Amino acid sequence: MSSVNKSGTYKLGGDSVRRLGYGAMQLAGKGVFGPPKDHDAAIAVLREAVANGVNHIDTSDYYGPHVTNRLIREALAPYPGDLTIVTKIGARRGSDASWLPAYSPEELTQAVHDNLANLGLDVLDVVNLRIMFDTHGPAEGSIEAPLTVLAELQRRGLVRHIGLSNVTRAQIAEGR
């Protein structure tokens, strides 16, 4: 039994996943921007993680942008039946590699569609709404408007489960 399997499991969305997952953020280039330094090594890391029992991956299409999800698709599609991919929306990258909030209905909808296309999926397992009221950490403010857009995308069948990222206790309560 690999050490990943020994980590135990928990429920994420509707799936049982191992507590030790893989965060794909650093697959992109320096500063999480642009392509990786070694494309083949990035593919190998993803394949090795899944081969060793990782059954959930945390990613976002704004990593790169569009880099990590394309690598995940190249390395792992068709996806193992027990793999849960968790992605994030609510931010975008500026041409100068800056991290910018992206909460308009159009930006959130496009982000879901970009994640679907670049991962090669018809529906996203879990989408975390990343709150970027302050790029350095959680900050208060209402999340009702962007969460309502994400809930509508869920009703349309594009998202199975919704989560929150970089939020305060009050925002968790508002989300519930």
Rounded to an integer in angstroms, the radius of gyration calculated over CA atoms is: 16 Å
Averaged pLDDT: 95
Taking strands numbered 1, 2, ... along the chain, how are they ordered across the largest sheet? Answer: 3-4-5-8-9
CATH architecture: Alpha-Beta Barrel
Shape: globular
Strand content: 15-25%
Q: What's the SSE pattern?
A: HEEEHEHEEEHEHEH
Helical amount: 25-40%
End-to-end Cα distance, whole Å, is 38 Å
> Into how many domains do the coordinates divide?
1
Q: List the uncertain runs.
A: none
List the helices and strands and how they pair.
Layout (H helix, E strand, L loop, with lengths): L2 H4 L2 E4 L2 E4 L3 E2 L15 H13 L4 E3 L8 H10 L7 E6 L1 E3 L5 E3 L3 H15 L4 E7 L13 H12 L3 E7 L3 H7 L1
Parallel strand pairs: 3-4, 4-5, 5-8, 8-9
Antiparallel strand pairs: 1-2, 6-7
Helix pairs in contact: 2-3, 4-5
Commentary on this structure:
This protein is α/β, with parallel strands linked by helices. It has a single domain, classed as TIM Barrel. The protein is 35% helix and 22% strand. The protein has 6 helices and 9 strands. The protein has helices spanning 3-6, 39-51, 67-76, 105-119, 144-155, 169-175, and strands at residues 9-12, 15-18, 22-23, 56-58, 84-89, 91-93, 99-101, 124-130, 159-165. Strands 3-4-5-8-9 form a 5-stranded parallel β-sheet, with helices on one face. A two-stranded antiparallel sheet has the order 1-2. A two-stranded antiparallel sheet has the order 6-7. Strand 4, helix 3 and strand 5 (84-89) form a beta-alpha-beta unit. Helix 2 crosses helix 3 and helix 4 packs across helix 5 (144-155). The N and C termini lie far apart (38 Å). The relative contact order is 0.13. The model has no long low-confidence stretch (mean pLDDT 95).
